[in-house]
Amino acid sequence: MPEIIDEEGNLMPPAPAPARTPAPGGSGGGEEASINLFKKYELGRLLGCGAFAKVYHARDLRTGQSVAIKVVNKQRILKGNLKANIKREISIMRWLRHPNIVRLHEVLATKTRIYFVMEFAKGGELFAKVVKGRFSEDLSRKYFQQLISAIGYCHSRGVFHRDLKPENLLLDENWELKVTDFGLSAVTDQIRPDGLLHTLCGTPAYVAPEILAKKGYDGAKIDVWSCGVILYVLSAGYLPFNDPNLMVMYRKIYKGEYRCPKWISPDLKRFLSRILDPNPYTRITVNEILIDPWFKKGYKEIKYPVDNEFEFKDSGGDTEEGMFLNAFDIISYSSGFDLSGLINNNGNKATTEMFISAESPEKIIEIIEEVAKEEGMRVTKKGKGIRLQGSFVVMVEISRLTEELVVVEVKRGGIGRDIWKEKFKPKLNALIYQSERQVAGN
């Protein structure tokens, strides 16, 4: 395999990826096993993992293209009270369209997992490259320009990343930078009446001084600070603020105490001093960065794309089998993210239950109508579903999730729960889509 960094600190082209990749847990030898996900993706090797998710390489079975699939464990999300974070991350990523931001293609879900299907960045993490040695000043400038282009785009749309670091910056097959991991990002709706954000987040070595002060902060300004730390790391090969004692490191950050190595040019030193300014009110802004002489060298402005394509449209036309739903919307209104299997509920309040099925809407309605007629209930067609009325009332709506799958939402209220449990559920349970078996243990 060729060296990643040449003698002048420039990146070498990536080696070709192997045609086949081992499945999670596979031995990697011989004819490797693979996992078929939703009959759409062939899940391959593990790319990375964190506390709440794992990321796999995968192949789109329709196009043969490589994708990255982030697998999120729902139980861990619920235990960590991170449901809102996941919903926000999906909402943000599906909206952002910039050449230097990893693109989210679609979101899939089962009973226990959520799958983010994303653009595959073949070059891997920028962090893995810089640990091999510092970059040349020109190369550092190139990546910093791409980073600022992406972050400026986010800020113009009211999105603040809040966890920028080399581990969250990827490289594609052409060594172009891609910003990823919006799990800690914030939007303007989260700004309090004082005009500031207050949630403490970020990675210690990259966190801005005002976050340490715990008095609120401007999301755009803390992103600029983190970008400055990244620029320093790329150019110097090590962190500007670092100490084995975390409190000592925080004091250095709070005071903006750092030293530039001798190989950093005077122009870059000046530029870094404006970014790593501990006073957020005098710190350089993104707009000011764009006109700085050091930054402008060789910079080509990127025209922000305006398209907002996504695999599942928020509002699409009716089809013969019903309206297509966005997976984000399904996750948003599903209690506990439970998309597979009927939920057992007690009490007499109105109840909503959901499940995914590979059966056609016509077949599902036919089965429900048969049971309803046996129980002497009145059946009325209503919109995309039916209404059942007897000793209790049931509304059944069916919406298409993918070409193969539909989501069935059942709302019921009143008495007669035993009839529902004994008569309807056994018939409906047989229709539940059981894809989880194919990905058990991953």
Automatic annotation (TrEMBL):
Region (Disordered): 1-31
Cofactor: Mn(2+)
Any one GO molecular-function label of the UniProt entry: ATP binding
The keyword Chaperone is annotated on this UniProt entry: no
Presence of the UniProt keyword Transmembrane in the record: no
Catalytic activity from the UniProt record: L-seryl-[protein] + ATP = O-phospho-L-seryl-[protein] + ADP + H(+); L-threonyl-[protein] + ATP = O-phospho-L-threonyl-[protein] + ADP + H(+)
PROSITE patterns linked: NAF, PROTEIN_KINASE_ATP, PROTEIN_KINASE_DOM, PROTEIN_KINASE_ST
InterPro entries: Kinase-like_dom_sf, NAF/FISL_domain, NAF_dom, Prot_kinase_dom, Protein_kinase_ATP_BS, Ser/Thr_kinase_AS
EC number: 2.7.11.1
Keywords: ATP-binding, Kinase, Manganese, Nucleotide-binding, Serine/threonine-protein kinase, Transferase
One Pfam family here: Pkinase
SUPFAM superfamilies documented for this protein: Protein kinase-like (PK-like)
Binding site residues for ATP: 79
Domain Protein kinase positions: 41-295
Span of domain NAF: 320-344
SMART domains: S_TKc
Family designation: Belongs to the protein kinase superfamily. CAMK Ser/Thr protein kinase family. SNF1 subfamily.
Protein name per its UniProtKB record: non-specific serine/threonine protein kinase
Organism name: Abeliophyllum distichum
Phylogenetic classification of the source organism: Eukaryota, Viridiplantae, Streptophyta, Embryophyta, Tracheophyta
